[in-house]
């Protein structure tokens, strides 16, 4: 429902392909177009992505502008600012300290970096940056030209575009900038926001707490209204038939959703295969494991791919295998081809499974939204800083998941094997597909807000409050 007396002018900025997917495929771009006079600014090299996903938007009234991507040198300056703020404010978040320890930010570990920033405050660094690094004039002129009441920036909370727009349009001005933070870790693990927008939307109350505690954002400016990409789980329009996701027709399957961190995932997949072999041979069950690797984690070698293929009960999700196999030449740092799978395949894939084994990602929450229990392999891997067990303890946003209803922790390899058998055996001998209804697991809404409305309608509601 449109709560405005007339259509307000809104500019939304897309700086990354995943946000185009999230807003386009979830139906939120079209809904924003229904509610507002919609203007879209898109990075020039992403115009094809927008055209492919949001077909005929211009015919429906949207006005689209392209802006030139930031130069490598300018992007580096913004990244240096983010790194410096993370270092200076490292005591505000255990996630900051973990990322520094892992050496993700190489310069942070250098004596030169430490010597420079140990004696400076965040305000010192921000003022120095502001005085020396000009804004992207083309982008700021575009925003001024549109003269929108609201500027919406889908964000991971560390984009150069967000920096320039927020510092050019402060909260007290007539143009209100809304930072639409996408992921549950963005406000606790990336950096400190150098400039404060008029409002922040985020995944749930946990993320709102991070915005207030870590970034000193006023409580009245933080709105935990969820994320557009999760709308695919709360709408009834998806009727995916997932019988074709694996080559051997089986009645039941366990879904293994991979994580992005480097850990012994293939070992755990092999343990799951052994557990299913026991269920199928000893109990007469008919179960498969459907494996969906994390889209940001490439296959490390042809040997690893061959190892997975040899697991007789493991079948790739049909949408994952081409990208996963094609990623081998790109390992370890380059982006995968087709990195972001279509949103439409997730709901059916999850909801038709017996349960989910998951890496450390938002797929934990997504499985719970779909009413599926989740097994988390949190197994110590000596010498590995990115093992699930270490990362679980070291990231702010994972706190409390081990006590969340619907989540089962496997702390050893034997424990994982036994939990898979005990959980699968409950339904493995049923003669019909499992069709459990959606559940509201206790505690889930602390991590992620969702309801039956589209995110765009929830956004419309909060924009009225920051006029």
Task: Write a structural description.
The chain is α/β, with parallel strands linked by helices and 467 residues long. It folds into 3 domains: 9-70 and 133-233 and 450-466, Glycogen Phosphorylase B (Rossmann fold, 3-Layer(aba) Sandwich), CATH 3.40.50.2000; 72-132, no CATH class; 242-441, Glycogen Phosphorylase B (Rossmann fold). Helix content is 39%, strand content 13%. It contains 20 helices and 13 strands. The protein has helices at residues 17-25, 28-35, 47-53, 72-88, 94-101, 111-117, 122-132, 137-146, 160-168, 186-189, 205-215, 265-282, 302-309, 321-326, 344-351, 363-369, 388-394, 413-425, 444-447, 455-463, and strands at residues 9-14, 37-43, 63-67, 150-155, 176-181, 199-202, 222-224, 252-257, 287-292, 314-316, 356-358, 374-377, 407-410. It has a 7-stranded parallel beta sheet, sandwiched between helices. The protein has a 6-stranded parallel beta sheet with strand order 10-9-8-11-12-13, sandwiched between helices. Helix 12 (265-282) links the parallel strand 8 (252-257) and strand 9. Helix 2 (28-35) runs parallel beside helix 20 (455-463), helix 4 (72-88) packs antiparallel against helix 7 and helix 12 (265-282) packs across helix 18 (413-425). It is globular and about 70 Å long. Mean pLDDT is 87; it is low at 237-248 and 329-337.
Highlighted features:
467 residues, alpha/beta, Rossmann fold, 7-stranded parallel beta sheet, 6-stranded parallel beta sheet
Mean pLDDT: 87
Q: Could you tell me the number of beta strands? A: 13
CATH class of the largest domain: Alpha Beta
Any guess at the CATH architecture of the largest domain?
Answer: 3-Layer(aba) Sandwich
Question: Distance N terminus to C terminus?
Answer: 18 Å
| Total number of helices | 20
Strand content: 5-15%
Radius of gyration: 23 Å
CATH superfamily of the largest domain: Glycogen Phosphorylase B
């Amino acid at each position: 429902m449109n709560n405005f007396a007339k259509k307000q002018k809104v500019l939304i900025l897309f700086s990354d392909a995943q946000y185009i997917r999230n807003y386009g495929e979830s139906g939120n771009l079209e809904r924003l177009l229904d509610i507002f006079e919609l203007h879209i600014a898109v990075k020039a090299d992403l115009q094809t992505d927008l055209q492919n996903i949001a077909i005929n938007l211009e015919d429906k009234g949207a006005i689209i502008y392209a802006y030139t991507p930031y130069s490598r040198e300018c992007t580096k300056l913004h990244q240096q600012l983010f790194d410096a703020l993370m270092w200076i404010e490292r005591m505000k978040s255990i996630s900051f300290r973990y990322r520094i320890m892992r050496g993700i930010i190489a310069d942070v570990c250098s004596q030169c970096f430490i010597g420079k920033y140990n004696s400076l405050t965040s305000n010192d660094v921000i003022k120095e940056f502001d005085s020396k690094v000009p804004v992207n004039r083309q982008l700021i002129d575009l925003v001024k030209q549109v003269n929108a009441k609201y500027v919406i920036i889908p964000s991971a909370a560390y984009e150069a575009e967000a920096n320039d727009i927020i510092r050019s349009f402060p909260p007290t001005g007539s143009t209100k900038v809304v930072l639409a933070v996408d992921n549950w870790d963005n406000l606790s693990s990336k950096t400190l926001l150098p400039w404060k927008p008029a409002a922040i939307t985020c995944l749930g109350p946990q993320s709102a707490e991070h915005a207030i505690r870590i970034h000193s954002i006023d409580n009245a400016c933080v709105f935990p209204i969820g994320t557009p990409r999760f709308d695919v789980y709360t709408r009834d329009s998806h009727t995916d038939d997932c019988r074709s996701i694996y080559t051997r027709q089986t009645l039941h399957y366990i879904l293994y959703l991979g994580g992005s961190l480097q850990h012994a995932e293939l070992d755990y997949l092999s343990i799951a295969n052994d557990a299913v072999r026991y269920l199928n041979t000893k109990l007469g069950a008919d179960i498969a494991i459907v494996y969906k690797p994390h889209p940001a984690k490439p296959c490390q070698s042809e040997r690893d791919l061959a190892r997975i293929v040899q697991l007789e009960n493991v079948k790739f999700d049909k949408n994952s295998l081409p990208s996963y196999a094609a990623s081998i030449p790109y390992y370890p740092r380059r982006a995968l081809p087709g990195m972001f799978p279509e949103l439409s395949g997730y709901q059916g894939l999850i909801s038709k499974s017996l349960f989910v084994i998951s890496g450390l990602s938002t797929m934990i929450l997504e499985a719970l939204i779909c009413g599926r229990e989740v097994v988390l392999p949190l197994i110590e891997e000596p010498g590995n800083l990115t093992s699930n067990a270490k990362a679980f303890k070291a990231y702010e946003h994972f706190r409390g998941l081990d006590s969340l209803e619907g989540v089962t922790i496997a702390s050893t390899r034997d424990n994982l094997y036994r939990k898979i058998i005990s959980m699968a055996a409950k339904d493995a001998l049923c003669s019909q597909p499992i069709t459990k209804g959606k559940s509201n697991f206790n505690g889930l809404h602390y991590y992620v807000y969702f309801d039956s409305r589209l995110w765009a309608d929830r956004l419309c509601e909060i924009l009225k409050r920051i006029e």
